[in-house]
Structures are given as structure tokens and as C-alpha cells.
TrEMBL record:
GO cellular component, one term: plasma membrane
Name assigned to this protein: Aquaporin
One Pfam entry name: MIP
Membrane-related topology note: Multi-pass membrane protein
Protein localization: Membrane
InterPro entries: Aquaporin-like, Aquaporin_transptr, MIP
Primary location group: membrane
Membrane-spanning intervals of the chain: 82-103, 123-145, 157-180, 200-222
Naturally occurring in which organism (per UniProt): Arcella intermedia
Family: Belongs to the MIP/aquaporin (TC 1.A.8) family.
Keywords, ordered alphabetically: Membrane, Signal, Transmembrane, Transmembrane helix, Transport
Length: 232
């Protein structure tokens, strides 16, 4: 439980700090496209590092949508899932609060690094984008997890794969929704800064996309793998 709290706190600190840095770069006339790519790279590499660091302790979920997705296909116990989600949400608040304590003025300028809809993007469109981005993320996470034994026994390169998917998702989604893919990512800044606009879509979209991804993978591949394991 503590690992999920700490890893999510570190993730939120990194994500919100990157948002502050991105905003500061724009003040000095930095190229928007280059800033987007560097921001996406920072988030992706942060996820990779945290998964490598915490996967053998708790699985390094850091995301309620991922936890629920694994719960749906019975790869995590209910009470453990509830505990993980609570710790992740608390960690998201602490991570954002630490960033705010370090950058109080700039934090307000970027709404605490909150995920927000881009110009002209409707809530329905934003929810759909979050669903699709999270589908790709969770499908990859489920595919790279080793279900033949302990959930935490992941392939050596799995954290890199997951981190690269996050990087790509950020490049695609940041201009439209901020590319949350994670209710905890949006929850921390909302609590610390009070920015609750369209908060619902950052829960409905990622959780729906994650559940669809895990069920799809389970139906296509996982059920056959489990059958083979049980027979052997």
C-alpha cells in the first residue's frame, strides 16, 4: 500500500512540475511543439522509472483505472484493489501539494498542473479521447504483465514499453485533454487547487477504456494462456 502511495505521489509531483516547466518555457517564447514532445518524454520516462522501481513491491499501478482493469479480469483481489486506489488518490494529493509548496506562484498559473480540455474540445469528445488513450495504455500493461505466476513478475522490458505508450499517448492527447489516462493524475490538482471543471470525464473515460482493454485482451489471449497453464 505504501508503495502505491509513494509512487503515485512521485508521479504527480513529476507531472505537475513538468506542467509548470512547460508554462515557464512558453513565457520565454520556446517552441510549442518542442515543449510538447519534451513534456511527453518527461512523463513517459518518469513512468518507466517508477515502474522499474516499484513493480516488484506493489506492481506499480499508480492509476485507479489500471487497478480496476486488473480487478475486472481477476488479477488482483478486491480489498487490495480498494486499498491501492485509496493510497493512489492520497498520493496524488500529496505529490501535487509538494509541487505547489515549491512553485506557489507558477502553480496557480497552470491550475496546479490540472488536466483540462483544449480549445474547442467538448466534454464528450474529451471523454472519448481519454477512453481511447487509456485503452491503449491498459491493453499494453495487461499484455506485458506475466499472468503465469505472480502479477508482479513482469518482463525486463515491460516498464520501457509502458513508458513509451504513455509518451505516445501524451503527444496525441495533451492538446485535447491534457492526456490524463489516470483519475489520480487529475484528482490531485483538483483537490489542491479546486479546479473541478469536467473532472468526471477524467474518471469515466480512463476507467471505461481500461475495462474495455482488459476484457478485450482477456477474451482474445489471456483465457487461452490460463487454460494452458492449468493443463500443464
Amino acid at each position: 500500500m505504501a508503495a502505491e502511495f509513494l509512487s503515485t505521489a512521485l508521479l504527480l509531483f513529476a507531472c505537475t512540475s513538468l506542467a509548470v516547466g512547460f508554462y515557464k518555457d512558453q513565457l520565454f517564447g520556446a517552441d510549442l511543439g518542442a515543449g510538447l514532445i519534451s513534456n511527453a518524454f518527461g512523463v513517459g520516462m518518469t513512468v518507466t522509472t517508477l515502474v522499474y522501481s516499484f513493480a516488484n513491491v506493489s506492481g506499480a499501478f499508480m492509476n485507479p483505472a489500471v487497478v480496476i482493469s486488473f480487478l475486472v479480469i481477476r488479477q488482483i483481489e478486491l480489498f487490495k484493489a480498494i486499498g491501492f486506489i485509496i493510497c493512489e488518490l492520497l498520493g496524488s494529493i500529496v505529490g501535487t501539494a509538494v509541487m505547489y509548496a515549491i512553485f506557489p506562484d507558477l502553480s496557480h498559473a497552470v491550475h496546479m498542473g490540472a488536466t483540462e480540455l483544449g480549445p474547442g474540445v467538448t466534454p464528450a469528445e474529451g471523454c472519448s479521447i481519454e477512453l481511447l488513450l487509456t485503452f491503449l495504455l491498459v491493453f499494453t500493461a495487461v499484455a506485458t504483465a506475466d499472468f503465469s505466476g505472480d502479477l508482479r513478475q513482469m518482463g525486463r522490458f515491460a516498464p520501457m514499453v509502458v513508458g513509451h505508450v504513455v509518451l505516445v499517448d501524451c503527444i496525441i492527447g495533451v492538446p485535447f485533454t491534457g492526456a490524463s489516462m489516470n483519475p489520480a493524475r487529475s484528482f490531485g490538482p483538483a483537490v489542491v487547487g479546486g479546479y473541478w471543471n469536467n473532472q468526471w470525464l477524467y474518471w469515466v473515460g480512463p476507467i471505461s477504456g481500461g475495462i474495455l482493454a482488459s476484457i478485450t485482451y482477456h477474451m482474445l489471449f489471456l483465457s487461452e494462456d490460463i487454460e494452458k497453464i492449468e493443463k500443464s
